[in-house]
Amino acid sequence: MREQIELCINRFEKRIRQVHVAIDPMRKTKDFRTIAFIIEGVLHADPAPEPIRYSSHLKTVSKEFTVKDSIE
């Protein structure tokens, strides 16, 4: 699943490079039907590239996918 997310980002968002998606083992959810991911990459924009990091959740029953900025 994480490889499919990487593929979609690489295909549809050309400004983001060095994309890496990982399942977040540290993020405990109350619902065992929810999968947590970390999405990282480099946004190529003016004036300089910027690292990005997002926290995301997939609710497997409703197929709802949420993404939040998680740069600290």
Largest sheet: 4 strands, antiparallel
Helix content: 10-25%
Order of helices and strands: HEEEE
**Total helical segments:** 1
Structural class: alpha+beta
Query: What would you report as the Rg, rounded to the nearest angstrom?
Result: 13 Å
Report how far apart the termini are: 26 Å
Describe the strand arrangement of the main beta sheet, using strand numbers. 1-2-3-4
What are the low-pLDDT stretches, counting only 5+ consecutive residues below 50?
A: none
Residues in β-strands, percent? over 45%
Number of domains: 1
Mean pLDDT: 88
Number of strands: 4
Q: Outline, from the CA principal axes?
A: elongated
Describe this entry's structure for a reader:
The model has no long low-confidence stretch (mean pLDDT 88). The protein has one domain. A hairpin with a 4-residue loop joins strand 3 (50-59) and strand 4. Helix content is 15%, strand content 47%. The relative contact order is 0.21. It is built from 1 helix and 4 strands. The chain has a 4-stranded antiparallel β-sheet, with helices on one face. The chain is of the alpha+beta class and 72 residues long. The chain starts with a helix and ends with a strand.
List the main descriptive attributes of the protein structure presented here:
single chain, 72 residues, alpha+beta, four-stranded antiparallel β-sheet, 1 helix, elongated
Short description:
This protein is of the alpha+beta class. It has one helix and four strands. The chain has one domain (2-69).
